[in-house]
Amino acid sequence: MWHYGDSETNQVQNSRVLTTSLEESSSVPLEDWKLNEFTLQRKRLLRLGYRMLGSVTEAEDVLQDAWLRWARADDDIRTPTAYLTRIVTRLCLDRMRSARVRREVYVGPWLPEPLIETADTYEVVPDDVTVTLMLALERLSPLERAAFLLHDVFDVALTEVAVVLERDPTAVRQLASRARKNVQNARPRYNIGAAEADEIARAFFAASRDGDVAALSELLTRDVEIHTDGGGKVRAFRGVIYGLERALRLFVSARKKAVLSPTFLRTVTIDGLTGYVSLDTNGVLQTTALDIRDGRIFAIYIVKNPDKLTRVNI
Question: Is the pLDDT confidence value at 122 over 60?
């Protein structure tokens, strides 16, 4: 699998490993045209899988399964793009149904696996994907999510979406319409320069570390939200924190209880949002993504679940 921060050379090597693995596990030798076609489609399919599942790890697992099915497919397929899209979407839908059951018993808020953006990962999560949008997608049914992503994001014709989802085109249009209404307020609308974003991220880290009420009051909006995903594996807030007053009490209390100071590692872009990687007061690795609007922080997304941070380099 590919890892965040991999160089292009390493990614090519990892791609060859996947190819070799596929050839060894398939009873049907892969022809060159199939390898070439899948390589051309891979980034687009990975983007689809990530948006469907909220996890690069799971998306890559889906693509591995798709490779195997593609290897065994008939050679007379006339529309490889449609065929591969259909396979990946249906595999994702299968995973989403089981994932919903798991999330019903998930401890605390659930957040998508953080993708720290580099030149190599941009094509997996371009500018139109943020944590805010991913959470909005989580509120949709699996079919609504698939219909919206395929039709509105990937420009798949409605008739083809109907084939993929095995639904009537009219029903698919309704699915996409409902989804569109539910996510419209989560689409990215706020642009911020890199220098300003870095300044705000560092200022927030310092203010939260010190429990600086005055500085935090200047940085946060009155209706700020704090989402912390520990997955029951590490200490984290069990619910979402809403409002400036509760947030301030939280940071002041954390400062008083802290034995060690948190450690700032570096600023990064996480799923389209400004953020940073750090170690908390217990030395636990975490990522923090900041939804900044008009120069202030509207939402804070903290991932501490170690299962979701295996790809994050310290």
Answer: no
